[in-house]
Amino acid sequence: MTAKPCSHEEAVTAAARSGDWSPELKAHRDGCLTCAELTLVVAALAADAEELVAIHAPLPDPAPIWLRAQLASRERDYRRATSAIVWVQRAAVAVTLAVGLAFVPGLWNLVKGAFTSLDLSSPVADLPRAAGSPLLVIVVSMLVLGGLALWELTAAQEN
Amino acid sequence: MIPMALTLPRTLTTDLAGRAVTMDEAAFRHLYDRTARPLRAYLMRSCGDLALADDLLQEAYLRMLRSGFEGEDDDHRKNYLYRIATNLLRDHFRRKRPESDEVPERDESPGHDEAVHLRSDVGGAMAELAPRDRQMLWLAYVEGASHQEIAKALGLRSASIRSMLFRARQRLAKQLQARGLRPELEVS
């Protein structure tokens, strides 16, 4: 005899779970292989579940789960709060690089001129000329600041 | 017999939209107390290892908290937990067999059989089934999940659940009968 799907399966499942069998359903089950198998499976699984739920091994403590979730939540909040700063740092790096690239040809001549005219033997007298170009001061400052921003950015990402 | 529909308290929520953890600790503990044992039973019968079941159980709750899922009602939250747990089981089985993208038909890892054959004949019979069959049967007949819920949890087409469940049930019945359990013995 081969079992085939039966239209009473839903009712048999409910009855097998609750143990509440109507005489008609019980009669049907006794003559239907599919429903007899279904009854066996549902009853066996229910007994197994009961046994497993009642197992004496203690459950894992929920406190660490809660703490880990809290930590993850705080980390996400921190990332959200610092994301604006990170974007400003990125923008600073980008602007610095753009300025640096735009002035590379002129800057090279400027730096070359500054160094060739620099007389290290008399620094006081020649200092204004060595550092005299406002453009040079701006560009060097931006490069230094850009470097610092880059360092900050890297440090922030590592953390 | 364990209750088929767990009655869970409504979780307390804050107004902090977008925050991952939306229930307070007391609500979480209450949810945990109500659902952890049945969920562990499901995990244990599916993976056959108590220690692994405990790990997956913790991970399931952690993921639920991280996701900020509140759920429409108690059943919704319970279903969500079981879906996470089922995904974790699937990931576990995939990691064990990286060459296959499908859930393996049999779990034959060392020590598996000893762990799965817990105390009952039912445990032994279930261990002979594919992990997906075990999950499907448990969700359907212990948790009372609908075909749609089972399909969602297992990543299958809803239309194919009926026939898959029928075949899985036949396989389990065969295993149970091989262990001397007959339909008439189970009938109350």
Structure description:
Chain A is mainly α and 159 residues long. Chain A has helices spanning 9-18, 23-31, 33-53, 62-102, 104-116, 123-130, 134-158. The mean pLDDT of chain A is 81. Chain A is built from seven helices and no strands. In chain A, α1 runs parallel beside α3 and α2 (23-31) packs across α3. The longest helix of chain A has 41 residues, at 62-102. Chain A folds into two domains: 9-53, no CATH class; 62-158, no CATH class. With 188 residues, chain B is mainly α. Chain B has a single domain (25-186), classed as Butyryl-CoA Dehydrogenase, subunit A, domain 3. The longest helix of chain B is centred in the first third of the chain and has 23 residues, at 25-47. The radius of gyration of chain B is 17 Å and the shape is globular. At the A-B interface, α2, α3 and α4 of A face α1, α2, α5, α6 and α8 of B.
Key attributes of the depicted protein:
heterodimer; A: mainly alpha; B: 188 residues; mainly alpha; 9 helices; 64% helix; 0% strand; globular; transmembrane (chain A); membrane (chain A)
CATH class of chain B equals Mainly Alpha
Broad structural category of chain A: mainly alpha
Would you identify the regions of chain A where 5 or more consecutive residues have pLDDT less than 50?
none
Question: How much β-strand is present in the residues of chain A?
Answer: under 5%
- What's the tally of helices of chain A? 7
Shape call of chain B: globular
Number of helices of chain B: 9
Biggest pleated sheet of chain B: none
Rounded Rg of chain B: 17 Å
- The Cα radius of gyration of chain A reads 40 Å
The tally of beta strands of chain A, per DSSP, is 0
Order of helices and strands of chain B: HHHHHHHHH
Mean pLDDT of chain A: 81
Helix share, percent of chain B:
55-70%
CATH topology of chain B: Butyryl-CoA Dehydrogenase, subunit A, domain 3
Supply the CATH architecture of chain B: Up-down Bundle
Tell me the strand percentage band of chain B: under 5%
Provide mean pLDDT of chain B, rounded. Answer: 76
Detail the poorly predicted runs of chain B: 1-19, 99-119
**Separation of the first and last Cα atoms of chain B:** 13 Å
Q: What order do the SSEs of chain A take from the amino end to the carboxyl end, as H and E?
A: HHHHHHH
